[in-house]
Amino acid sequence: MKALRFNQHGDPGVLAVEELPSPRASANEAVVRVFAASINPSDVKNVEGRMSQTTLPRTPGRDYSGVVIEGPAEWLGAQVWGSGGDVGFTRDGTHAEELVVPVASLHRKPANLSFEEASAIGVNFITAWCAVVEAAQLQAGERIAIIGLGGVGGAAAQIAKRIGANVVGVGRGAHSASAYVDAMVDSQAAGFVDEIRSLTNGGADVVFDTVGGSMFETAVHMLKVRGRLVEISATDRRDVTFNLADFYHNESRLIGVDTLKRDLVSSGAMLEALRAGFEDGSYKAPVIAQTFALNDAQAAYRAVAAGTKGRVVLTPQSRA
Predict the structure, then answer these.
(1) What is the pLDDT of residues 125-175, one digit of tens each?
(2) Which residues form the Enoyl reductase (ER) domain (predicted)?
(3) Is 249 exposed, middle or buried (0-12, 13-18, 19+ CB in 10 A)?
(4) For the chain, which residues make up each domain, given as ranges?
(5) Contact 316, 18 (CB under 8 A)
(6) Which residues of 69-94 are buried (b: 16+ CB within 10 A; e: fewer)?
(7) Is the pTM for the entire model greater than 0.85?
(8) Which contacts of 172-176 are long-range, i.e. CB under 8 A and separated by 24 or more positions?
(9) CATH of region 135-256
(10) C-beta of residue 187 within 8 angstroms of C-beta of residue 209
């Protein structure tokens, strides 16, 4: 089978398609023929050498969808999807024609999603699920402010609305209306924190900050008493400051989330929890901006590194 490989870190030029032996499954594993595998910014960072846990040589890629071709009889021919914080880093990843996964990680993809759409769900929606459902434990009727409505923030807004929360989006400049956001606030406008506190009746129950860094110092002021602040990033800087007395007088909670700690099995359980929302139309798959054959993976990685709007997907196997 063909697989994308890198033997050293660097820009996408270090990636090459190699011919490898087809994988075989052990008693607790299955082999998936990969029909689609999205490329995440973390995959680009992985190739660049910014993920210290990665061992080389390695096949990158976290998200996938495809069909089971080897494993337990009840799974043969099943259309599945998956993702993991281990795959592509400490075990070979999804940017290949075939992939070995634990049987316990197998879950059927939503019937109404194409393989390309299903492969583009993983990292964004799993991160949002970890933040909104697991970490913040958002409840119906609560108010959540989401800083940054990119892939993860947009997924978080969808999850929050399905839970029954009131959603305030926070971003730079003007934003178009969204069915998943009750109000939008311009983070570049004067007094925008006061506007958020007004919209959330004195402060948000949950603030989900997808930006981090210097925005953290603003995010803590958006919280109501006993509010929960969830952080997943440190975009412009890692070291931040805030008034500790104000923080504990407000009885605020600070929670960090790192989806690289969720392997294929635990990530698969989250995708299974998300499946009903896609099948009933509560959640929408992201727009697929471009698809590339495996042989064009360098160009695909460069597109993601350049900040292409929408998802970039590799299609390792033909479905003809």
Answers:
(1) 999 999 999 999 999 999 999 999 999 999 999 999 999 999 999 998 756
(2) 10-314
(3) exposed
(4) 2-123+261-315, 135-256
(5) no
(6) bbbeeebeebbbbbbbbbbbbbbbbb
(7) yes
(8) 175/149
(9) 3.40.50.720
(10) no
